[in-house]
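User: Could you go from structure to sequence for me? I need the amino acid at each position, not a summary. Structure tokens:
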């Protein structure tokens, strides 16, 4: 049994093994990472040869869509619409002074952004998530929230080959 989690904290692998898991894969995981884990634990299976991966040339989105550009465009379009909605909800959480909701929205934005390859947005969202976890007051989040909004102004340019225009 292989656990798939976004929790990459120290000791998580040990917790999963104690719970009866054989291995742990941390999200966002590429298909190559998942395939490697399955091959490790099921070596007697007749596995097809994988296409060679050219380092960072293969984006997460290209791998997710199998290179289907139209599907990629659809996913990017949905991501961009969702990002807008999440940013509005995040602003409301900030206005309400709700640190936990800010943290949750930042976490969701980071995960979705990593999946489509919007790395600058993901990085700023992760910084805001961490800041919200450490903050005592929502006012401490003004800088990280502004940085996230700035990064989110043009994430589609970062997602090479999948412009929705």
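Assistant: Here is the amino acid at each position, in order:
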């Amino acid at each position: 049994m292989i656990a798939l989690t976004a929790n990459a904290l120290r000791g998580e692998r040990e917790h999963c093994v104690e719970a009866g898991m054989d291995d742990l894969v941390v999200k966002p995981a590429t298909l190559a990472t998942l395939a490697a884990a399955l091959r490790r634990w099921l070596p007697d299976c007749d596995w097809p040869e994988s296409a060679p991966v050219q380092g960072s040339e293969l984006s997460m989105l290209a791998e997710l869509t199998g290179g289907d550009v139209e599907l990629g465009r659809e996913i990017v379009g949905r991501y961009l619409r969702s990002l807008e909605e999440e940013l509005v909800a995040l602003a409301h959480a900030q206005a309400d002074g709700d640190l936990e909701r800010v943290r949750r929205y930042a976490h969701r934005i980071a995960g979705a952004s990593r999946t489509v390859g919007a790395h600058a947005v993901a990085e700023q969202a992760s910084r805001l998530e961490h800041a919200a976890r450490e903050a005592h007051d929502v006012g401490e989040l003004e800088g990280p929230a502004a940085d996230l909004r700035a990064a989110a102004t043009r994430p589609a340019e970062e997602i090479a080959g999948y412009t929705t225009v």
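One structural detail worth keeping in mind: The helical segments are 12-18, 31-41, 60-65, 69-95, 99-116, 119-134, 142-151.
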